[in-house]
Amino acid sequence: MVIVLPAMVAAMFLGMQGALYYHARNVAMAAASEGARVAAVENGRTSDGIGAASRFIADAGGDRVLAALAVYGDRSPGQVVITVSGTSLSVVPGWQPRVTATGSATTERLTGEP
Question: Where would I find the beta strands (DSSP E) of the chain?
């Protein structure tokens, strides 16, 4: 009994940590995809995508989901890439799991004759 209870508590904390990490990762992936989608429109800009990704994370819980947030972007004539990076919440003191997700989309452009 002395060994079983601490093992059960440790397993519970590991499960909670895994859930917090995967939730933060899913939010980061969705934010990066949303940012890439917004920046990929014909007259879109990288700053539009970065703003959309940041707003998505703020709406999803902000620092309570993904702390130390950093959003980067790059837009070329053919593709836009938005990267979201931050740290997941942690139940283990002193450990901050790093989360990074990248979303990309092909930029819209008109081709051919009407």
Answer: 66-75, 79-88, 98-106
